[in-house]
Amino acid sequence: EPLKIGEGEILEDGDDILIIAYGSMVSGATETAKILKTKGISACIVNARFVRPLDKELLLPLASKIKKVVTMEEGTLIGGFGSAIVEMLNDNDINISVCRIGIPDVLVDHASPDQSKETLGLKPDQMAVKIIKKFNLDN
User: Fold this and answer.
1) Which end of the chain is more exposed for a tag (fewer CB within 10 A), N or C?
2) 82 near 56, Cβ under 8 Å?
3) Which of 46, 101, 97 is nearest to 73 (CA)?
4) Rounded to whole angstroms, what are the CA distances from 132 to 5, 53, 56?
5) DSSP conformation letters of 90-111
6) Measured between alpha carbons, how far is 47 from 20 in angstroms, rounded to an integer?
7) Do 44 and 86 contact (CB within 8 A), yes or no?
8) What is the pLDDT of residue 106?
9) Sign of CA dihedral 98, 72, 10, 13
Protein backbone atom coordinates (compact mmCIF):
# COMPACT_ATOMS: atom_id res chain seq x y z
CA GLU A 1 0.00 0.00 0.00
CA PRO A 2 1.24 3.54 -0.66
CA LEU A 3 3.12 5.39 2.03
CA LYS A 4 1.26 8.48 3.25
CA ILE A 5 3.48 11.57 3.06
CA GLY A 6 4.34 12.98 6.48
CA GLU A 7 3.27 9.88 8.39
CA GLY A 8 5.68 8.18 10.80
CA GLU A 9 5.30 4.76 12.37
CA ILE A 10 5.81 3.31 15.81
CA LEU A 11 8.19 0.36 15.55
CA GLU A 12 8.25 -0.52 19.25
CA ASP A 13 6.34 0.65 22.31
CA GLY A 14 8.15 1.79 25.45
CA ASP A 15 7.73 4.17 28.38
CA ASP A 16 11.17 5.38 29.48
CA ILE A 17 12.47 7.20 26.39
CA LEU A 18 11.20 8.13 22.95
CA ILE A 19 13.66 7.51 20.11
CA ILE A 20 12.72 9.25 16.87
CA ALA A 21 14.95 8.05 14.06
CA TYR A 22 15.24 9.01 10.44
CA GLY A 23 16.61 7.20 7.39
CA SER A 24 19.57 4.91 7.85
CA MET A 25 19.55 5.49 11.62
CA VAL A 26 16.31 3.56 12.12
CA SER A 27 18.20 0.25 12.30
CA GLY A 28 20.70 1.83 14.70
CA ALA A 29 17.80 3.00 16.86
CA THR A 30 16.44 -0.53 17.02
CA GLU A 31 19.85 -1.94 17.99
CA THR A 32 20.35 0.81 20.57
CA ALA A 33 16.94 0.05 22.09
CA LYS A 34 17.95 -3.62 22.44
CA ILE A 35 21.04 -2.56 24.39
CA LEU A 36 18.99 -0.24 26.58
CA LYS A 37 16.45 -3.00 27.24
CA THR A 38 19.23 -5.17 28.77
CA LYS A 39 19.70 -2.32 31.26
CA GLY A 40 15.99 -2.16 32.09
CA ILE A 41 15.27 0.90 29.91
CA SER A 42 12.16 0.67 27.74
CA ALA A 43 12.29 2.67 24.48
CA CYS A 44 9.47 3.70 22.22
CA ILE A 45 10.95 3.75 18.71
CA VAL A 46 9.46 5.85 15.93
CA ASN A 47 10.54 5.72 12.31
CA ALA A 48 9.85 9.33 11.34
CA ARG A 49 10.07 8.41 7.63
CA PHE A 50 9.96 12.12 6.66
CA VAL A 51 11.87 15.21 7.77
CA ARG A 52 9.25 17.46 6.22
CA PRO A 53 6.45 17.42 7.15
CA LEU A 54 6.86 15.94 10.61
CA ASP A 55 4.06 13.76 11.95
CA LYS A 56 2.93 16.09 14.75
CA GLU A 57 -0.18 14.02 15.49
CA LEU A 58 2.02 11.03 16.28
CA LEU A 59 5.05 12.71 17.86
CA LEU A 60 3.58 15.41 20.12
CA PRO A 61 1.44 13.10 22.30
CA LEU A 62 4.31 10.61 22.63
CA ALA A 63 6.80 13.33 23.62
CA SER A 64 4.32 14.82 26.12
CA LYS A 65 3.77 11.42 27.72
CA ILE A 66 7.34 10.05 27.77
CA LYS A 67 9.18 13.39 28.35
CA LYS A 68 12.63 12.11 27.28
CA VAL A 69 13.26 12.40 23.54
CA VAL A 70 16.20 11.13 21.50
CA THR A 71 16.61 12.02 17.83
CA MET A 72 18.89 9.99 15.57
CA GLU A 73 20.09 11.07 12.16
CA GLU A 74 23.09 10.41 9.95
CA GLY A 75 23.16 14.06 8.97
CA THR A 76 24.44 17.24 10.54
CA LEU A 77 22.93 18.27 13.86
CA ILE A 78 22.92 21.96 13.01
CA GLY A 79 19.71 22.69 11.16
CA GLY A 80 18.97 19.00 10.72
CA PHE A 81 16.27 16.53 11.67
CA GLY A 82 16.89 16.80 15.43
CA SER A 83 16.69 20.58 15.21
CA ALA A 84 13.32 20.28 13.45
CA ILE A 85 12.06 18.04 16.28
CA VAL A 86 13.26 20.53 18.93
CA GLU A 87 11.57 23.39 17.06
CA MET A 88 8.32 21.41 16.75
CA LEU A 89 8.33 20.67 20.49
CA ASN A 90 9.15 24.28 21.34
CA ASP A 91 6.47 25.65 19.01
CA ASN A 92 3.92 23.45 20.78
CA ASP A 93 5.05 24.43 24.31
CA ILE A 94 6.49 21.01 25.11
CA ASN A 95 9.56 21.90 27.15
CA ILE A 96 11.37 18.63 27.72
CA SER A 97 14.91 17.33 27.49
CA VAL A 98 16.07 16.21 24.04
CA CYS A 99 19.22 14.27 23.17
CA ARG A 100 20.16 14.85 19.53
CA ILE A 101 22.42 12.22 18.00
CA GLY A 102 24.00 12.88 14.63
CA ILE A 103 27.03 14.49 13.01
CA PRO A 104 28.43 17.41 15.02
CA ASP A 105 29.79 20.57 13.41
CA VAL A 106 33.20 19.08 12.57
CA LEU A 107 35.12 18.14 9.46
CA VAL A 108 34.58 14.42 8.89
CA ASP A 109 37.64 12.61 7.56
CA HIS A 110 37.33 10.19 4.67
CA ALA A 111 36.65 6.71 5.98
CA SER A 112 34.33 3.78 5.56
CA PRO A 113 30.78 4.33 6.85
CA ASP A 114 31.46 2.05 9.83
CA GLN A 115 34.69 3.88 10.69
CA SER A 116 32.93 7.24 10.44
CA LYS A 117 30.06 6.07 12.66
CA GLU A 118 32.51 4.85 15.27
CA THR A 119 34.53 8.08 15.20
CA LEU A 120 31.35 10.18 15.48
CA GLY A 121 29.77 8.06 18.24
CA LEU A 122 26.97 6.74 16.03
CA LYS A 123 27.34 3.03 16.80
CA PRO A 124 24.49 1.53 18.88
CA ASP A 125 26.64 0.85 21.97
CA GLN A 126 28.00 4.42 21.87
CA MET A 127 24.52 5.88 21.43
CA ALA A 128 23.18 3.82 24.35
CA VAL A 129 25.91 5.21 26.62
CA LYS A 130 25.15 8.78 25.50
CA ILE A 131 21.42 8.33 26.16
CA ILE A 132 22.00 6.82 29.60
CA LYS A 133 24.30 9.71 30.57
CA LYS A 134 22.06 12.42 29.11
CA PHE A 135 18.98 11.27 31.02
CA ASN A 136 20.81 9.96 34.09
CA LEU A 137 19.37 6.46 33.62
CA ASP A 138 22.22 4.45 35.15
CA ASN A 139 20.39 3.61 38.35
Assistant:
1) N
2) no
3) 101
4) 33, 29, 26
5) HHTT---EEEEEEE-SSPPPS-
6) 6
7) no
8) 78
9) negative
